[in-house]
Amino acid sequence: MPSPLSCARLTAWTVAAVALQILGLSLFVFGFFPVKPTLRGFSGLESYRMPTCNSTSDGKETELPPDQLRSLYKEISKIPPSYDRLILMVIDGLPAEFVLGRDEKPPNKAMIEAMPYMQSLLTNGKATAYHAKAAPPTVTMPRLKAMVSGAIGGFLDVALNFNTQAFLDDNLLDQFYRIGWKLVMLGDETWIKLFPKLFTRQDGVSSFYVKDTVGVDLNVSRHLDVELAAEDWDFLILHYLGLDHVGHIGGRQSILMAPKLKEMDEVIKMIHVRNILYQGNATSRTLLVVVSDHGMTDGGNHGGSSYEETDSLLLFIGLGSKGSNYSPYAHKAFQVDIAPTLALLFGVPIPKNNIGVMLPKMLDSLTDEQKLRALELNAWQLLRLLQAHLPGLLCGDLRCGGDGQSLQINGSTGRIKEKFCHLFSKATAAHNMWQLRQGSSFTSNTDDLRIAVESYYDFLRSASEWLSRRATDKPINLLLSGIAIMLISCFLLLILLFFLLREVYFTQTESCSQLKESRRSCHIDEIFVFIGIIIHVLSFTSSSMVEEEQYTWHFLTSTLHLLFLFSAIQLLFKRQASKRREEELTPHQSCISVASSIPMINNENYKISSVLVVLFCARVLRGWHQGGVNWVHLPDVSKLLVQAGSFIIKVLHIISLLIVMMPSLFALSIVRLKRGFVFLVSLSHFVSGFLVLLHIIENQSDNMVPINQSAASIAQIFYINIGSTVMLTVLASPWVVPIPCQETHMMTQTSLNCHSTNMRSDSLLLGFQDCTYMIGTTYVASWCLLQLLLQQPINAIPVLLIFLQLLACMIYFSIDGSHHKQCVEVASIYFLGMAGHFGLGNSNSLATIDVAGAFIGISSYSTVLSGILMFMITYASPMLSFLSMVMYISMKNTRYFSLPNKSKWSCMLEMKLAFPCLLPLVLNSVVLTAFTIILLLMRNHLFVWSVFSPKYLYICAATVCVYIGVFIIATTGFYTSIVLSFRTKRLKPEVHNFLFKFQ
Amino acid sequence: MGKIQISASKAFALHFLCAAALAAGYCLARDVYALNLISDPAQTLRLLLVFEGPVVIGIYSWIRRDPDSCSYLKAVGRGLLGLPIGASINAFGAIVLGAPIGIKYLTKTIYWSFLMSLFTFVPASCVFGKSRMDWQRILAHSKPMEGVDYMISLPAHGAVIGAWLGAWPMPLDWERPWQEWPICVTYGSVAGYLVGMLASSVFILILRRQDPVKVD
């Protein structure tokens, strides 16, 4: 790139970099969070019919009463349920290796001794055991979901229903509930979170206290005597957490492990003896299924995808005695196979999104015909799911199985379709063949049966494998290319910033040698911004630093402003020193000594006090919400206020409204535009403030009524009013601003520090400053009022504090111009915005999003509108910082940009807008790119789903916020300058000529 | 100006005394009173203060800038006066950066800020007194630094930067007792102070080498 950056070139490159970033980000997001098509609703009667080409489920799913539904299922499935009652015993974190050994070898002796009863069941063939491979993330809740639904969920469907943790997809428990089963749950309360309404009786245990290894299990076992004797339940879930906790404390080799295994063995023995061997009446047959949700590493952790973690146990007890002619330690299965197996054994439809396959050993108790029927049902269900992934599968040609080779199919999906089609029709053909033979001759033809079963399994296994790969595989090429593109974009932005810095500051230091000295002494804040960003990025590698990010931001922001304070004090001393030197020596000419007079020292005091305001507000903000994860319980101001009662909160809300109104009205009143226009805008602000006040009072009077009609209409009027005010101001103010060519002596507060010498050449600049000042003030004031309406009442003071911080910061920067580099100032405003984001009580977990505020003033439910409001509430503070940057560019004296030989307005645009637009993009891009790489590296980390992925969603939303903010800044500046230059050209041609000559 | 030029060996000895006082205080706390920073931060900090305070004030009053116009006792008095002022500045900084406010932490914060004051503000106040010129020089770097300036500013900067870095492990969820305020911050500042003293000795040594004319 050539060194002089023109405005157009800078814009073009920036836009290109942003476009690249969006492209890379979307590639990565689609690769990392695969959005797989899931089927809504619950399997019903249609699952007993062959899927057709356009398998739109006929919506006339009649709501049958449970008993009728149960008998109907029994009738049309043609498989009578093998069992009547089910006990599902989940032992959290038990690796299958403990029970079944590894690599077809029996487990070690200590383990066998620890679980004598289970081993005796296995060797006598009374139990069928599997190594059930769990899919990552190997943490409890997703694993439970996989077990009961047979599906492997993505992250986004967890993230997107952040309102409720309840499990809404089709699953076994709901299917059982539909046929009138009574469900009882004892143990981990995750089950209650997933299925809040299903259980007849429940006793949840929190898995929060990891140090407790005894109480969590006693709490389950103490109910066993009663529950095992009770006749009223059909499905009993026992979830033992103790073993997982033992692992977390001491790892696999913990001394507590053997006693815990012994305890589990006792429970199994008790259930087996009481409910399976000696059943009260012969009609009720009970099946005991012992499963573990995941394994554990040697150190006792889990979450990743190593063999030790994914190797979980699946044990069926109560299948009736079979010959023990096989090794009990050999079978392998998948955790998702539990769902279809249990569904078929108990005569309910297989859950819709299941990707599991009926376990072969479990077929042995069925007759030949039932076996094939069960496989057929499983195949139909998978076929339906495949159709969702591959639209058009099975359409039209059932010939494809026979001579499909002749078909011209393009692409890999075509080949996959063809393959499944082929496998399925082969299986159906074998099934039909067997039925024909069975019908015609009564000779038992085991060969046909074997072929049919095998071909069904061929289809089922390949379909299941393909589906599970689709669900879990992260296409590494896609991820890497996304990251590469983001890196390119990040580097592009950094290079742009570098060129801009070089251009601006090299010309500056050449022109003014004295500034060089001040630049050197202020260097520490630039270095700090750089180091702070690096530390911030590095802190992302630690999950707890991500959880507690608010401390990082507050620490960095406050340190930066302490440095500002320090440099202001330094400057004070330096000014005094140079003054004294001047008195001693002969006065010599330099930039600083001209400026350093008595009022400047006064200015230093203003500077110091405004930084003190920023620091004070920051400290209060930090204490307002005890955010994060680990220290949420500690006392903070907001908790104190909630205890103090709603009246005080309301009063504070009103007070903060008044305090916000005052500076904004004052700021508007000093604008040098046409009086009438300013009056109009101020009036409309006043009306907005009054509406917010009304809304606060309205909410106070009837707190009980959930939907308050009058409050909603007040909010709507407010939206209209504030929207029209902002639009009016933005569109009209460049047209009404006086173009101050002749009246240079009239200086406004907006351009406090204009040197009067080169005033004349800057008429356009002055107009621009007045105009953006007006627009910026309107933006900031309107946004604050909007936030006072939308945010929770407890957040009113923090909104005020952020507002004051930004104002103080801008005053600090506008007094006595060029003492910090502009990039440091923009960075500090950006930092304030981010620190304020956490000061408003946000965190990096999805739980802190304020959902309630998203419905203020919305009369009917609309996802888009409430989504926008939710975004506005969550990103209130960063957005405010961007809006205040419009105000900042108007107050900032940027005269030291000396860029000759350029067309006027584009040159002005560059010097005004380059840093405020480019720097947030650069900062955000660095964070985004770095965190993307960290997320890729951490994809097998224990907390990837609970900590890193939510943070990634926040970062993506913050990126959107930066784009919007920068867009607003750029368009406002662009529009204003175009209108102004148009007016200058048209109205004052002679002045324009003069100016042109001058420049 | 430059009435006292300090030799490298003297600077090193003085720094060594300061470090030794800290070490003695820590050892006494550990061995005699069976205290350490983790078990009882307030008491330990107080003990460190008792040991470090007289040594720092004594040493830096001895190398005061204006030995002719100002007696030794007066310099000590300046140091004692500077102690609470520096403590309040340090406490302000700590609280702004997020140190907890509350009765529980009050004594710890006070002792910590007094210790920080010994590291940062007291030496300067002992040496400079109310000489505006010297303060300007050390704060605004408007004139080249001298040996004593290094002795004052490098350990002070080291202590502040060390304390700043020492605060970083606090939000981590390791559940270690030393993550409490002000334990790891104290560790950080002491480490930074020691590094700063080492650096200042080295700097003075280099200064001597470059500028042998100035040796008295």
How would you describe this structure to a colleague?
The complex is a heterodimer of chains A (999) and B (216). With 999 residues, chain A is mainly alpha-helical. Chain A folds into three domains: 142 residues, no CATH class; 286 residues, Alkaline Phosphatase, subunit A (3-Layer(aba) Sandwich), CATH 3.40.720; 447 residues, no CATH class. Chain A contains 38 helices and eight strands. In chain A, strand 3, helix 9 and strand 4 form a beta-alpha-beta unit. In chain A, helix 16 packs antiparallel against helix 18, helix 30 packs across helix 37 and helix 35 packs parallel to helix 37. About 6% of the residues of chain A have low confidence. With 216 residues, chain B is mainly α. Chain B has one domain. In chain B, helix 4 runs antiparallel to helix 6 and helix 6 runs antiparallel to helix 7. At the A-B interface, helix 23, helix 24 and helix 26 of A face helix 3 and helix 5 of B. Chain A: It is found in: Endoplasmic reticulum membrane. Chain A: This is GPI ethanolamine phosphate transferase 2 isoform X1. Chain A: Pfam families: Phosphodiest, PIGO_PIGG. Chain A: Belongs to the PIGG/PIGN/PIGO family. PIGG subfamily.
